[in-house]
């Protein structure tokens, strides 16, 4: 698998995702500066977490206009897998590659904690390492993760099985108590129509290592490598 | 001098915080010439308590600062220790107390920004932030506002720069009602052969300014931080700076990228007193002169005067001396990161600091005489009156189940989850022990080694006996690192006190420094950096003396570290270090304060040699894999420690019935003690080994069940958990 991680001014999970990918891929992914205009041939593009442009204006709004985004859109349309995590998810919604917006968390505070996710759809390259309905534990760390879309969009997401992950309790129950940030339909991650683009608020790269207290994220990267090898 | 301004008045001298005697010294240095306002401003900040340590210097010199592993002790931007395998750990703790009281969000945020810069200035990538916070009484009308602003400020800054905030401590006490304490600590890691210092050298070398533009914010911050508050605190809001963590993140990356090239001669961040203190200190340390062109400094607005440019405390700025001809290499890197870059001056061999605005000289000061004449006071002091020790029999007994419930839900012991969930404590993906344990553990990237980090101080002990209480703060730091299996390496100290011009406050400072020194010497745990914050008083009411200690230790193999959570049922619970003659120390304990509403008695004494032998024994057991969980005993004593272990592992415990005084045994705060769990079949050999070393050890019970039980009485874990977890969120939403 050939992978690249995009680095914006203010990205701060770029190294973390590179380390996690390297563990599954056996080699270091390419780090691409946001001012570059063209990507090489790739199987996976990762838009990492952080605070691109300091979240000024609106999370992800400015990065969506970085020079590299044009080629990311072209590659995405051509079917190259694109994974946006946290701020990366916010950037992908700002570019229009994914529907919806990420609003400020329901309790208006930044929140960093482990959450449980139900793997709602495991038929994508991103989620193929998980069993359908599997409950995994990985952390969130965000101030704006409260997923919102209009009724029509939500219906399309549900009907087309485009919800990748939902916040749930440790037994897999999807309920309001487990909804860490107030997202509609407990949505933690969504796909584009062809399920080649995934945006998610939780950080799989942060729990892909036993020494850090969990490996809930590891199967995502192992699954990607297997699906895209 | 062409640019001489209106002559200096008595009012100018006073408003710059200078005494008549200090002004006389200025005239002497200038050979009788009257300083202009720019020069007066420079003297004022350089000689402020904040920058000159004039009241504490005499005593700080007595602290032990060296050890074979210390690469750089106090005096630089931060301290540096050798942690092996070619790496160095660089760390420091610094206060931002005064600004955080005036404007909690920005005050705390810029505190984090400033300490981060102190660390990456030296070539380190910051890997962890910590803090030590003190707020006023929970009843005080400003406390919620201050807690909420400070926590959000610390969180937002650290979260955005992408350095995990891995822990800290918080106390509430009415003495901080008008003066909260915000002490921020950063730990970084550098290649030990690529550490950068601030001493400038090389006449003719370019002086370069990078980072944010200079604005009119924070002028006189250092002077403000060197005075007491009256009822004019609100009016001081314009002296607080505004932080921009996004620029800081770019500055970290740009500086580290530049540091990988061979370009920099010296580098210093612009912190308190901004361009004045950074340029002055770089020149002074390198014994060179410096000429700066005010018109070349990037400014945020037009028409800023040299006075404003020199005294601005705008954040996210650095000053560097580059090797000649290498400006373009540096400029390219700062262009890439979209940061300002300007050559604003040159080093000279005149020994003078000369400031020019176009062709006019606006200041011309001799550097060495100004630095050497920096005031140093031997202020009068009186020792703190010692209090008699309290006997357990003189302290009210209540049923232990009630005492446990009250203590687990009291402001000083309640879970801090509400706080640390607002901090990104996992970014950089190396956090191996998150907040809430004995010490935070952060892995050294791509290795199996880690640093253990902790901040500690028990101000009520220090207040009762500054010497013993300060020994205790260092010992507790050492103990917390030991309890995760780390080897304690060095500390940074952040000394927060009231007005040193009062002999009783100066006495606290003197005795506290003596106590820290005694503990550091005995434990082989040197002070490598620190900060002093004085004048923490409002309307004459001082804070409890608070010498916060930030400790760092090394874990050689992260797979061997210990955590405090009970791991399984039917493990034996062993109390180690509890001497037979200890009846349980209740003087200055939380039991006494929370249950009996008393804050008296002598604090628990620390026997340093004993502390070391018990700690070394514990660490060896951890490294040998003999114990499954470990917790040091501190606030609230044995039963609080056990309850914290039970809640962390969600496994209960049952203790044997207690002989003698129950309240003092369960809640006494004697020092040098740990509680551990071990396999039942290892208890006899552990007992034998400890006894051979003269270390007291006793089995006090076993793990298991869903409650904390003693004999037939018990409290369910679910009850304890909700008391412990609910206090903070309820308080902050006003539901308590």
Provide a compact summary of the structure.
Chain A has helices spanning 14-25, 68-77, 87-95, 151-159, 218-228; strands at residues 3-7, 30-33, 44-47, 81-85, 101-103, 111-119, 135-142, 146-148, 163-168, 187-191, 197-200. Chain A is an alpha/beta fold and 229 residues long. The N and C termini of chain A lie close together (5 Å).
Structure summary, number of beta strands of chain A: 11
- Main sheet specs of chain A: 9 strands, mixed
How many β-strand stretches of chain B?
28
In this structure, how is the largest beta sheet of chain B organized? Answer: 7 strands, mixed
Beta-strand content of chain A: 15-25%
Shape of chain B: globular
Radius of gyration of chain A: 16 Å
The oligomeric state of the chains shown is heterodimer
What count of helical segments of chain A does DSSP give? Answer: 5
Structural class of chain B: alpha+beta
Helix content of chain B: 25-40%
Q: Uncertain regions of chain A: pLDDT < 50 for 5+ in a row?
A: none
Low-confidence runs of chain B (pLDDT<50, min 5 residues)? 1-5
Fraction in beta strands of chain B: 15-25%
State the secondary-structure class of chain A. alpha/beta
Strand order of the largest sheet of chain A: 2-1-3-4-11-10-9-6-7
Shape of chain A: globular
Question: Which helices and strands appear, and what pairs or packs with what?
Answer:
The complex is a heterodimer of chains A (229) and B (736).
Chain A: E1 3-7, H1 14-25, E2 30-33, E3 44-47, H2 68-77, E4 81-85, H3 87-95, E5 101-103, E6 111-119, E7 135-142, E8 146-148, H4 151-159, E9 163-168, E10 187-191, E11 197-200, H5 218-228
Parallel strand pairs in A: 1-2, 1-3, 3-4, 4-11
Antiparallel strand pairs in A: 5-8, 6-7, 6-9, 9-10, 10-11
Chain B: H1 10-15, H2 20-29, H3 37-46, H4 49-52, H5 57-60, E1 70-72, E2 79-84, E3 87-95, H6 97-102, H7 104-120, E4 125-135, H8 143-161, E5 165-172, E6 181-191, E7 206-211, H9 221-224, H10 245-259, E8 264-269, H11 274-286, E9 289-293, H12 306-311, E10 317-322, H13 327-336, E11 340-348, E12 352-357, E13 360-366, H14 367-372, H15 400-408, H16 417-420, E14 431-433, E15 440-443, E16 450-456, H17 459-464, H18 466-483, E17 487-496, H19 503-523, E18 527-533, E19 537-538, E20 541-542, E21 546-555, E22 572-576, H20 590-596, H21 608-623, E23 627-632, H22 637-649, E24 653-655, H23 662-667, E25 674-678, H24 683-692, E26 697-703, E27 707-710, E28 713-716, H25 717-732
Helix pairs in contact in B: 7-8, 7-10, 8-10, 10-13, 15-25, 18-19, 18-21
């Amino acid at each position: 698998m050939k992978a690249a991680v995009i680095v914006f001014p203010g990205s701060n999970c770029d190294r973390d995702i590179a380390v996690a990918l390297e563990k599954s891929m056996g080699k270091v992914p390419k780090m691409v500066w946001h001012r570059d205009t063209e990507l090489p041939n790739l199987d996976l593009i990762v838009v990492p977490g952080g605070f691109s442009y300091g979240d000024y204006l609106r999370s992800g709004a400015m990065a969506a206009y970085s020079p590299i985004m044009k080629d990311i859109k072209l590659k995405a349309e051509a079917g190259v897998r694109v994974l946006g995590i946290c701020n990366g998810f916010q950037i992908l919604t700002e570019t229009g590659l994914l529907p919806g917006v990420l609003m400020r968390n329901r309790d208006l505070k930044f929140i960093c904690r482990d959450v449980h996710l139900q793997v709602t759809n495991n038929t994508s390259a991103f989620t193929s390492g998980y069993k359908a309905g599997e409950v995994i534990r990985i952390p969130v760390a965000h101030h704006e993760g409260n997923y919102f879309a209009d009724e029509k969009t939500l219906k399309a997401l549900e009907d087309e099985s485009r919800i990748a992950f939902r916040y749930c309790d440790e037994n897999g129950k999807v309920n309001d108590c487990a909804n860490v940030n107030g997202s509609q339909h407990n949505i933690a991650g969504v796909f584009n129509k062809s399920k080649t683009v995934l945006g998610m608020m939780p950080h799989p790269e942060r729990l892909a290592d036993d020494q850090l207290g969990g490996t809930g994220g590891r199967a995502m990267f192992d699954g990607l490598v297997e699906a895209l090898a | 001098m062409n640019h001489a301004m209106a002559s200096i008045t008595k009012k100018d001298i006073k408003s710059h915080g200078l005494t008549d005697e200090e002004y006389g010294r200025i005239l002497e240095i200038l050979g009788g010439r009257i300083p202009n306002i720019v020069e007066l401003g420079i003297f004022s900040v350089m000689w402020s308590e904040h920058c000159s340590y004039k009241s504490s210097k005499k005593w700080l010199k007595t602290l032990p600062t060296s050890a074979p592993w210390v690469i750089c002790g106090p005096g630089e931007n931060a301290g540096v220790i050798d942690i092996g395998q070619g790496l160095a750990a660089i760390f420091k703790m610094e206060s931002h107390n005064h600004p955080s009281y005036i404007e909690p969000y920005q005050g705390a945020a810029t505190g984090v920004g400033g300490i981060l810069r102190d660390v990456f200035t030296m070539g380190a990538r910051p890997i962890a932030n910590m803090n030590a916070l003190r707020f006023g009484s929970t009843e005080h009308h400003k406390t919620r506002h201050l807690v909420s602003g400070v926590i959000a400020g610390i969180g937002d800054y650290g979260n955005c720069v992408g350095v995990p905030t891995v822990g800290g401590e918080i106390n509430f006490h009415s003495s901080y009602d008008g003066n909260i304490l915000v002490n921020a600590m950063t730990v970084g890691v550098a290649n030990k052969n690529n550490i950068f210092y601030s001493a400038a050298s090389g006449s003719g070398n370019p002086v370069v300014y990078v980072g944010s533009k200079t604005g009119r914010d924070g002028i006189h911050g250092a002077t403000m931080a060197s005075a007491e508050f009256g009822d004019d605190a609100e009016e001081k809001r314009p002296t607080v700076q505004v932080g921009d963590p996004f620029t800081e993140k770019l500055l970290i990356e740009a500086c580290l990228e530049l540091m990988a090239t061979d370009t920099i001669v010296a580098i210093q961040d612009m912190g308190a007193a901004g361009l004045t203190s950074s340029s002055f200190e770089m020149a002074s340390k390198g014994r060179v002169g410096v000429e700066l062109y005010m018109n070349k400094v990037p400014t945020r607005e037009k028409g800023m005067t040299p006075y404003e440019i020199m005294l601005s405390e705008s954040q996210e700025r650095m000053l560097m001396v580059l090797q000649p001809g290498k400006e373009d290499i540096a400029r390219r890197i700062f262009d890439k990161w979209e940061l300002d870059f300007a050559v604003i001056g040159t080093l000279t061999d005149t020994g003078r600091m000369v400031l020019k605005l176009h062709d006019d000289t606006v200041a011309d000061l001799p550097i060495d005489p100004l630095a050497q004449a920096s005031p140093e006071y031997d202020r009068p002091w009186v020792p703190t009156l010692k209090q008699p020790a309290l006997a357990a029999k003189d302290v009210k007994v209540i049923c232990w189940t009630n005492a446990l419930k009250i203590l687990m839900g009291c402001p000083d012991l309640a879970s801090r989850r509400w706080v640390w969930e607002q901090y990104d404590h996992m970014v950089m993906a190396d956090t191996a022990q998150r907040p809430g344990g004995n010490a935070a553990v952060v892995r050294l990237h791509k290795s199996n080694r880690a640093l253990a980090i902790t901040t500690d101080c028990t101000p009520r002990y220090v207040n009762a006996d500054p010497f013993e209480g300060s020994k205790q703060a260092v010992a507790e730091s050492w103990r917390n690192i030991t309890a995760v299996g780390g080897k304690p390496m060095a500390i940074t100290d952040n000394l927060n006190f009231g007005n040193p011009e009062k002999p009783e406050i100066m006495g606290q400072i003197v005795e506290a420094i003596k106590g820290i020194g005694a503990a550091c010497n005995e434990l082989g745990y040197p002070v490598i950096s620190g900060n002093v914050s004085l004048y923490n008083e409002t309307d004459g009411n001082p804070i409890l003396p608070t010498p916060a200690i930030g400790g760092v230790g090394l874990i050689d193999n992260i797979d061997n570290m210990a955590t405090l959570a009970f791991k399984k049922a039917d493990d034996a619970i062993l109390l180690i270090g509890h001497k037979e003659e200890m009846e349980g120390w209740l003087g200055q304990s939380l039991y006494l304060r929370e249950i009996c509403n008393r804050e008296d008695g002598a604090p628990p004494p620390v026997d340093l040699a004993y502390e070391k032998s018990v700690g070394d024994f514990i660490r060896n057991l951890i490294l040998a894999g003999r114990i499954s969980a470990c917790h040091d005993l501190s606030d609230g004593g044995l039963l609080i420690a056990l309850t914290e272990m039970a809640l962390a592992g969600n496994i209960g415990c049952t203790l044997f019935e207690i002989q003698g005084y129950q309240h003092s045994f369960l809640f006494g705060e004697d020092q040098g003690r740990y509680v551990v769990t071990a396999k039942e079949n290892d208890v006899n050999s552990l007992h034998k080994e400890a006894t051979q070393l003269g270390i007291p050890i006793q089995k006090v019970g076993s793990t298991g069940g869903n409650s904390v039980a003693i004999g037939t009485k018990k409290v369910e874990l679910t009850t304890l958990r909700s008391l412990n977890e609910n206090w903070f969120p309820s308080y902050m939403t006003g539901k308590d």
